[in-house]
TrEMBL record:
Residues 40-60 are annotated as: Disordered. Residues 150-255 form the Cytochrome c domain. The keyword Heme applies. The lineage of its organism: Bacteria, Bacillati, Chloroflexota, Candidatus Thermofontia, Phototrophicales. One of its GO terms (molecular function) is heme binding. This is Cytochrome c domain-containing protein. Gene3D superfamilies: Cytochrome c-like domain. Keywords: Heme, Iron, Metal-binding.
Length: 262
């Protein structure tokens, strides 16, 4: 059992529409099997990086050049090949939308609704969310976390249900860890290092490995004195890698000395 995580499901809330749109933009081409070529993808990434880091590049002149470049990369003349034209038309819409967002455009509620409705007609919400979720492969996730910097403050917001998870709902970890239902939040990291990792079953584990496994597979190890099957086993489907990194960073910041039993 994780030293500091939630043990009950929180009522669903509506997700952030802009977050959903960004997820849709990255998932829909994969779902339909119409990803751009590597050269086109690299060119699009380069344009995105430039436009997002240098706002001066989002000028009328630059936008005109970008649009002309896109039309060259994604020709839509149907006379030669109607299927290729439709595929390129779809891709062209994608890069147009991404460029607009990178340059600071905020879609209207109507535009967001249309995008979401169109995508949900092609892929269910579970498929869309799963594309960004971390999954349950602990070893692979721990390796990926080495490339991600977690933010303990954001992790605290996730832990306390102030920041929403990938599915638009609160994790609500503190719901159980402020009572005797589960171990307390305070001193989480200290207990992991001093009490858990020395146990034989955790030989070779790091603190990160232990925390990730406890979050994703809470019944692999249940702390003595607490009941199994209380904590949800669905967090791998409810967080992306950045959210998990933030949550782990917050738990690792809990390095207080454990309180002495009276």
């Amino acid at each position: 059992m994780i030293e500091s995580l939630h043990c009950h499901t929180v009522q669903k809330q509506r997700g952030n529409p802009l977050l959903i749109l960004l997820i849709l933009l990255t998932v829909i081409c994969v779902h339909l099997g119409v990803m751009p070529t590597q050269a086109q993808d690299e060119a699009s990434d380069e344009a995105s990086n430039e436009s997002s880091t240098e706002t001066s590049t989002c000028t009328p002149e630059m936008l005109t050049q970008e649009l002309e470049s896109f039309q060259t990369d994604y020709p839509v003349e149907a006379e030669a090949d109607a299927d290729a034209a439709l595929s390129n038309l779809f891709r062209l819409a994608m890069v147009y939308q991404k460029l607009a967002i990178d340059c600071g455009y905020t879609p209207t509620e109507e535009e967001l609704g249309a995008m979401i409705d169109n995508t949900l007609a092609l892929a269910d919400a579970g498929t869309i969310l799963a594309a960004n979720a971390v999954g349950v492969d602990t070893e692979a996730i721990v390796a990926e976390l080495e490339t991600v910097t977690g933010d303990s403050f954001t992790g605290q917001l996730l832990y306390n249900g102030i920041e929403e998870a990938l599915d638009g709902n609160a994790l609500g970890c503190s719901g159980c860890h402020v009572s005797d239902t589960a171990p307390p939040t305070e001193s989480t990291w200290t207990r992991v290092v001093e009490e858990r990792l020395p146990l034989p079953q955790f030989d070779g584990y790091t603190d990160t490995h232990y925390l990730v496994e406890s979050i994703l597979h809470p019944n692999y190890y249940v702390v003595e004195g607490f009941a199994p099957n209380l904590m949800p086993t669905t967090y791998g489907q409810r967080m992306d890698i950045q959210q998990l990194a933030d949550l782990v960073a917050y738990l690792m910041s809990q390095d207080q000395l454990p309180e002495e039993d009276e």
